[in-house]
Design a protein that fits this description.
5 strands, single chain, 528 residues, rod-shaped, repeat, alpha/beta, five-stranded parallel beta sheet, Rossmann fold, disordered N terminus
Amino acid sequence: MLVDRETWSREFANNGTERIKLQKVSVDVEEIFIPTRDDLETQVKQLQGQAETGLLSAEMNRKYLGERREKGARKISADIEKFLASFSQFITGYAGIVEIVKTADNNFGGLAWGTLSIFLNVAASKQKHEEDINNAMVEFTRHCPRLNTLSEIYPDEDLKLHIADMYESVIAFARAATVFYSQSSFSRIASSFNPRSDLERTILEIQTGLENIRRDCEALMQARLHKQSKDIEELTAKATNLTMKVASMEEKLSRVEVDLKKTRKERSQGFVIRIKSSFDLPIVNGGISPYKNLLESTFLSYPRKLQPYRITIETLEKESAYRIWLKDIHAGVLFLSGKNAHYINQSTLSWLSEAAVLIIEQLETESHQYAYTFCQTKSLLGSSEKFSIKHIFASLGLQLLERRPPEDRRIESEIDILIHGEEWKSDEEDDMLQIGTKLIALCLQAYDAEETVFLVIDRIDQCRWTGETERLRLGVGHALEALLRLVDTVKCRLKVLVVVESSAHESLSLSSTGRRGRLVKRTNWDQY
């Protein structure tokens, strides 16, 4: 009748489980059909909500059980004391019986003490089982929001199916935990005998599922990184191709700009040539060399003892009037006048004309924007060889056009209309001054406000004025006033050098226009 301890233990556990079989709660899962992606996402959200509700229910039952234990602590304490006292007395009395039975077969001792050991183990396993459930709930509660985040980061259909299965398992776990905590103490002790209970299997399935999801996410992450790497390569190739296209377009644009500038320059040159052909203008294409040679031959043809004083750039820079004209932004017109040495009487050239040549050379060296004209290019100039003031101004204006062709064809049109209009045909000095300065103003529109433009007019007194001395003085004075008004009206910084012979400035009268700091004079600068 007696069996060994192991056999008896198994029979006890199996029979005990059958006698106090738990009433199980159905956790059947309906089969999931996924006809569309939206249906799958809806199913995932529904299962997520059920899982969270189940976890909350299990947690409430667990707390309820804890409160019930706390409220019944005195009764439970009395029951334990009673149980321990009875168990101690039983051991004392039972020991003698065991010793007697052992004389027949030593296995009976093992059976007896083994039975008591199983009894104590069942009681102890109750608390451990509850701790496992509690730990599992904490772990699953922590993972559920993460699963939702993963489904958003990796919108993969297979991953969503795994997550849906995981939500089902959590629901099953929550229901099993709820049933477990709702059972009586004896029922919970009996369920702990089964090492493969529904609750434990569910916990194991969830842990395995979480590991599978982690691996799926790693695979998806690697796939995404690989795709991003390919995308970057494609974008790099496209960027390289785009860069090449941009470079090609820039090259084409550069060629177009060069062609446009060439076309504009050719058009402007043609325009200037056409204007020049309309009337005779002072020739300056030969540069300053011919005029410089003329001045040198005039003032260096005397014996050494009689060689007159000649102006140099050093002596010019020492003159305060010259320095003010260069540096002062308000100074617009520098007026130089003086007499030649008394023994130079075979030419009407002025020794101060060399100052004009020196200034032009310096402007060329420093790459300034400038225009110049020499009104006397011979030692002696007859009346028929002289140019009118409007032709002198026209020469200056066309030089400015050649240096800076206007981008606006409207300016060319206005210039064309101006020089071919009835007003241009007038020989009245006031009309010529007005139309001449208007022409220069039109040509200066191509220059910016920050730029400084220089005009050099040598021997303006040698223009075609009336023969009377008084008319000459009035003509030079009117020309200065016109130039001063021009300085005030143009947008660029305009500086004008005017050189005359002394007789042209004697009793020179200027209106208020010339008394506003725009005019700087160095008169009576005579040669010795």
